[in-house]
Amino acid sequence: DQQVKQNSPSLSVQEGRISILNCDYTNSMFDYFLWYKKYPAEGPTFLISISSIKDKNEDGRFTVFLNKSAKHLSLHIVPSQPGDSAVYFCAASGLTGGYNKLIFGAGTRLAVHP
Amino acid sequence: GAGVSQSPSNKVTEKGKDVELRCDPISGHTALYWYRQRLGQGLEFLIYFQGNSAPDKSGLPSDRFSAERTGESVSTLTIQRTQQEDSAVYLCASSLSRGSNQPQHFGDGTRLSIL
Question: Chain A contacts of B88, Cβ < 8 Å?
């Protein structure tokens, strides 16, 4: 039972263009959503998050949009740079049993080419 | 160091052997988490520590898996009688507290290969 889904395993974007990574979830009890970026042989690095009470959060080139009615969130990267090439994981959390258990999607591999 | 540290970075062992994986969280972080990532998949939650206690062990795949944390710091994940399906990257994360608005900070993981 996948509660968090990233349906695109890979995405290729030209440098300078917008990258849009998508994520769907099924559990309406999630109250926080996070995006992590992962390079090979390294652990995931926190990128940006959004509370379920908001619909947009922006941090520099990165913006996360949340559509609660559709149970969908997306990460926009503008402009995309070659250094953004990595695997991006969407994660959702809620105080399940009193703690912050993250449920991860399978990831989307982003390739930004010159 | 400033980040979460895990050791060893790589471990190759024969089926049936026991392995112990170590995690040093960020100093002052009370919450500690273990995850597993199999090839081509997302991260799978294993266990969570708040201080030295583990309120939820339901993510552990079998009774061959156990974990402990001492001094509200170092944690070890032990896998007994390893099987080939245990091959994965084991990731540790810590956060300042257990709140859902607290990002988890990950180590680089231990890549475990069972022959």
Answer: none
